[in-house]
Design a protein that fits this description.
With 153 residues, the protein is mostly helical. The protein contains seven helices and no strands. Helix 2 packs across helix 6, helix 4 crosses helix 5 and helix 5 runs antiparallel to helix 6. It starts with a helix and ends in a 9-residue tail after the last helix.
Amino acid sequence: MNPLLFIKKIALTTSDKSVSFGLFILRIGVSFSMIYLHGYPRLINFSEISSEFADPLNLGTATSLGLVIFAEFFCSLFLIIGLFTRWSCIPLIITMIVATWIINGGKVFIFQEKSFVYLICYISLLISGGGYFSLDFKLFGRKMKIKTTTNTV
């Protein structure tokens, strides 16, 4: 299929596949950003930053850092491939709630903005799922499909 025709078809329609393509772009973009800017640097520098990492839930600094790395790196990897999309969003949502309102709570919104935008993306993915272009759909798609009916008044 001609790539320009594909993009034109997606941009001018609201078909299931165009919505799924939008979810695919959202999943890849937000996950790559999270891994590259947050998860991977924390993973490779674990020993250096574990003693000074924030401990907002009184679990210990190393445990808090480990949970954040699990969410930001490993759950984001699952989002990229679209495997267990909704389940992967839950730790990320919790992490972004803590980052927005506990770690940066009381500061001006500019300090909360980045984690708040991530939070909105993860809530959107939790609600919508991975879409057609995900391993979730390939593995569980037939079981996950829900028929919707519309009633006219």
